[in-house]
Every structure is written in structure tokens, then in C-alpha cells.
Amino acid sequence: MTKEKKSHSVTPFYRALWFYVVLFWVLISIVCFFPSWFTSKTILDRDFSNTGEIGDTIGGIMTPFIAIIGAFVTFIAFWVQYEANRSQRKDIQIERFENNFYEMLKIHRDNVAEMKMSTNYLNKKYFQNFFLS
Fold first, then answer.
1. How far is residue 95's CA from residue 101's CA, in Å, rounded to a whole number?
2. In-domain check, residue 92
3. Sign of CA dihedral 53, 55, 58, 64
4. Domain count, the chain
5. Residue 32: inside a domain
6. pLDDT score of 108
7. Domain membership of residue 57 as a residue range
8. Which of 12, 76, 103, 116 is the most exposed place for a label (fewest CB within 10 A)?
């Protein structure tokens, strides 16, 4: 039952990641409407279409927003990479422990297999005879 709970639960990292992805798409959606908002008359009666070429105006006004979104996406990419590295580090530690454990188990089995009494008792029979006598 704990495995079922664990498989359906969402880690805080993925919850935060989805929050940032949704935030990113909301910002992109808002930025897509900036050209029409900046070139039409606004509530404050400012008309940006008289400030020169319309392309220069839109480019000059929207560039900072696009740069901020680019920096945000770069941050998310680095953050995801950091989390992946941390997860990989944990997996490597577990793998090293398992390798050491199984190597020690193999050495123990080899030691047991090499044990021999002066009589004809080999391997596990050595221990049986040792404890019975």
C-alpha cells in the first residue's frame, strides 16, 4: 500500500516545477498581447504609435520582457539540472552500497567454500561438524 501512495504522490520538486511552467506560459501569453496593447490607445490616453517606427517601438518596449522571460527559462533549466544531479548522486550512493554489499557477500561465500577440516568435511558441512562436536 505504501508503494501505491508513493507512486501517486507528487514530490515538492515536481509541484514547484509545474508551478513555474504554468507561470512561464502565463507570462508568454501576456507578452504575446503586448504589441496590441502598446500600439493602441490605452486607459491612460498614451499613444505609443506616435513615437517613431512601430517596429522600433514594439522592439524597444518588449525586449526587456523577453529578456526577463529568457532569464527565467534559463533559471528553470539550471534548477532542473541541479535536481537531476542530486537525484543521480543519491542513486550512485545506493548503487555503491549494493556493489560493496554483494562483493562482501561473494567474499564470504568464497571463504566458506575454502574451509576444510582435516577430515573430509568441506564447505557447510565443516560448520555442521564444528558445532555438533
1. 10
2. yes
3. negative
4. 1
5. yes
6. 86
7. 2-103
8. 12
